[in-house]
Amino acid sequence: MKLRTLGFGSLVGVMLAAPMIAMMYVAQKWLNFSFAPFDVFDWIARLLPGPVVTFGIDRMVDMLILFGASVSGTAKTAEQSMAVGLFFVGVVVATIVVFWYVEARDQAEWSGLGPLVGVIIGIPVGLVAAYIGQSTLHPVVNFLWVFALFVTWGTLTAKSGRKLLTVPPSEITEDVHEVQEERSVQVIDRRKFLIQMGVATATITVAGAGLGRTLAVSERERLENELAAIQSRQMPDMPPMIDLPNEGDPVKPALGTRPEYTAVRDHYQIFIRSQPTVLNGDTWELPITGLVENPVNLTLSDIRNNYEPRNEFVTLSCISNRVGGDLISTTYWTGVSVQDILAEVRPRSNARYMIIKSGDGFYETVDLELINSDERIMLAYAWDGRPIPFDHGFPLRIWLPDRYGMKQPKWITEIEIVDEYVEGYWVERGWDEVARVRATSVIDTVAVDSVVEKDGQKFVPIGGIAYAGVRGISKVEIQVYNRDEWYEAELRKPLSDASWVIWRVDWPFEEGNHDFEVRAVEADGTRQVEEFNPPRPSGATGLHHKSEVVEAKEA
After folding, report:
1. Which residues 6+ apart lie within 8 Å of 164 measured at CB?
2. What one-character-per-residue DSSP string does 204-245 give?
3. Is 135 in contact with 32 (CB distance < 8 Å)?
């Protein structure tokens, strides 16, 4: 391949890929078509082996940490950017291939090249969009939209290749000046073509991105209004979250400790698709079938009105969370005990497991013995006294005490009672079958700017969180790294038996650059695992460290 062909192919690929993605984005936000870059990315992620997916996630998290970004706040945006970037690169590479073909073949073979390439690529991409896309439009409509875009792209690519790579035949002449003049005309013609094409595609891209962004904001407002409407229709008497039960506790968090209660908008988000799943709360029903005497189809109103509600402050942690990471949050859950649901459907004597399926393609298996042993296991429909947000699992998700989030499906659409075990989505991909929460403790802050003085001695407040599922925390200690002395922390009363504990140590002031570490003990005396283990397959372990320069401040 000539360098000229590679250069022109890359340039045209960029100019065609950008407006194509922009038009897909507008079509998704305006007309509810699928967004092919996300669909292809999600499809590839489902096909890849678990270790490969985990490797990709780990490298993405490494980059976020390297740049000091919040993993919980930016991971999904980074994933979406990766999906768009890979799609963009794929279109550019395909354009270069078409240019290479144009360069290598006779002009007579070009007439059907563009549409043919568009068909070859458009069919599989269109099928993926139709198969796993979240559009409410008919799958055939989504397929035809994507297919048409790629046929158009292929046609424009081939035409651009002919325009930029071919040299029109000219009369044979030995006049050097005429040859040079003809070449100059060709160069000017190509430049003009590229400028016109660049202006056109840039206009489409910028306009599409801007319009798509405006539509996205409007869509977000529409979804929030829809949630409010659902609450007014189906949950009109639902009280807001109660006051925090430990407000009078004398142990006050050190300045800089994360909020004890996580605002719903700040709750971490992890799900298997590039975008959250949106289900219609007014038409949604939950079928519970299989080995039951009384199969049912429950609406959201049925679940809320026909069963005794349960409320709990719950800390939820992602199994991918690293030691000291922020993929952990605490909020106020409302739902119904799964035991009450089972009492109505009456599982048969040979029933052993509950298979839960989600609107995003996720699935998990829960042992009925576990459910029968713990009435706290709930199907939750509200957070903080309001319907669970669309991007956190509306209209229904499950809570399993003492388990990582990977075992707890959101956007639940179906429950089947069966007699044989089926591996869940992440278990199939090599993650822990039980996924029991590992005890962890984190230093959030060494408050060097909030030094306190007691009896003439200065102390530096140090604080953070400790969590061991529903097993509880009995002790937290900190030390300056590699010293023998450990300082026991004061523990603030937790919001519930299922929430994290806020701890605080007032450490004797000592100037210097110090590396602090923290460890915790569970309620039954079991010590936190101090040995380092990565998140895969059973959750991260190890002690959290935090370095801080402690120095005297002038009065």
Report:
1. 8, 12, 99, 190, 193, 194
2. HHHHHHHHHHHHHHHHHHHHHHHHHHHHHHH-TTPPPPPPPT
3. yes
Query: What are the chain's domains?
Result: 3-219 (no CATH), 264-427 (3.90.420.10), 440-550 (2.60.40.650)
pLDDT in tens, 440-474: 999 999 999 999 988 889 999 999 999 999 999 99
> How far apart, in Å, are the Cα atoms of 154 and each of 3, 115, 149, 413?
21, 6, 9, 39
Checking DSSP bridges between strand 286-290 and strand 412-418, what pairing results, if any? parallel
Task: Extract the tokens encoding 313.
Answer: 């402050």
**Banded pLDDT at 65 (limits 50, 70, 90):** confident
**Residue 120 region, left (φ>0) first, then alpha (ψ -120 to 50), else beta?**
alpha
Helix %, strand %, coil % of the chain (to 5): 40, 20, 35
Segment 8-30, tens digit of pLDDT: 889 999 999 999 999 999 999 99
- Which element (helix H / strand E) includes 62? helix 50-66
The Cα-based distances of 347 to 407, 410, 418 in angstroms read 22, 23, 9
Distance of CA 476 to the CA centre of its chain: 31
Q: State how far the Cα of 270 lies from the Cα of 38, in Å rounded to an integer.
A: 15
At residue 337, the 3 state secondary structure works out as strand
If you search the block for the tokens 């975008």, which residue do you land on?
275
Specify the pTM: 0.89
SS3 479: strand
- The CA-based diameter of the chain, rounded to the nearest angstrom, is 102
3-state SS string for 396-451: CEEECCCECHHHCCCCEEEEEEECCCCCCHHHHCCCCCCCECCCEEEEEEECCCCC
Q: What is the mean pLDDT of the chain?
A: 90
